[in-house]
């Protein structure tokens, strides 16, 4: 996987900035936190390919305990004959450092948290790009990522998701009793494998049924670019 690049614009988006003027102290602190996250992260990931079969209008995965509940995930995978389950984590060190700053400097903790979110999203995107390169010779490509908690795809599936990947043993990723990933700066997602010639709708905030309530939606999607 290529070297990690943390986009400052993404950090600002997770901080909730909307073209405000940044004072020099905050601007410098963001740069400092980006550098610190780049030093702290120890990214780990795992993914597995599963064939899809359909029965009675529902989607199932071959040799997998995960039940793909919800109409939204069915729509997302409607043209896929296979899919990939993936999990990515930054590791416990990042969570520990954020908790440390929460005790001594809440502003830095807040900014470091946003930098970590931007980092784990970047790593997940990089992983998808690598997978897509590996399947391109088969004239296949990937849909965008779709995670438990999106739309009507239940967050409570996280435990089965982790079990299907054995991510607890492979990359140290676990789930709390409230279906929260541990370490927190982690992602689980499913991507469909489809033919290259098929149209894929770009991942966009406007496609999400939580668009109106999300404070992190992308500016380009707000204005329809």
Written as H for each helix and E for each strand, in order along the chain, the element string is HHEEHEHHEHHEEEH
- Strand arrangement, major sheet: 2-1-3-7-4
- What is the percentage of strand-forming residues? 15-25%
Q: What helical percentage do the residues reach? A: 40-55%
Mind describing the biggest β-sheet?
A: 5 strands, antiparallel
Amino- and carboxy-terminal Cα gap: 30 Å
Mean pLDDT: 88
Shape summary: globular
Which consecutive residue ranges, at least 5 long each, have pLDDT under 50? 219-225
Count of distinct strands: 7
Question: In short, what is this structure?
Answer:
With 225 residues, this protein is of the alpha+beta class. The protein contains eight helices and seven strands; from the N terminus they run ααββαβααβααβββα. Helix 2 packs across helix 5 (106-135).
What are the SSEs and their pairings?
Blueprint: H1 8-14, H2 24-40, E1 44-55, E2 58-61, H3 71-76, E3 82-89, H4 92-104, H5 106-135, E4 140-142, H6 158-165, H7 167-171, E5 174-175, E6 181-182, E7 186-195, H8 219-222
Antiparallel strand pairs: 1-2, 1-3, 3-7, 4-7, 5-6
